[in-house]
Amino acid sequence: MVSEEELNRMRWAARRGMLELDLVLEPFVQGRYSSLDETDRARFQELMLSEDQDLFAWFLRREQPADGELAIIVRKILDFAHTAPGDR
To answer: Tell me, what's the pLDDT at 1?
Structure first.
């Protein structure tokens, strides 16, 4: 169970100030974060420590994270982002 405090921290962390990132991260936090298991939540929290330019490159699929754990959560976020809202 995800606490409201943790969810609020992740909502805040997902607000990057770069529209392209906000359009990917904020819906993921709203729609999926609470249902992630503990491992994936930890991966997401680690991902939020990344630089915006790295996140931008990863979400545009220009690069992949060197860290395999980050690559897993990036893939899950991209899968979510490319799923029609009604099918999420």
So the answer is: 85
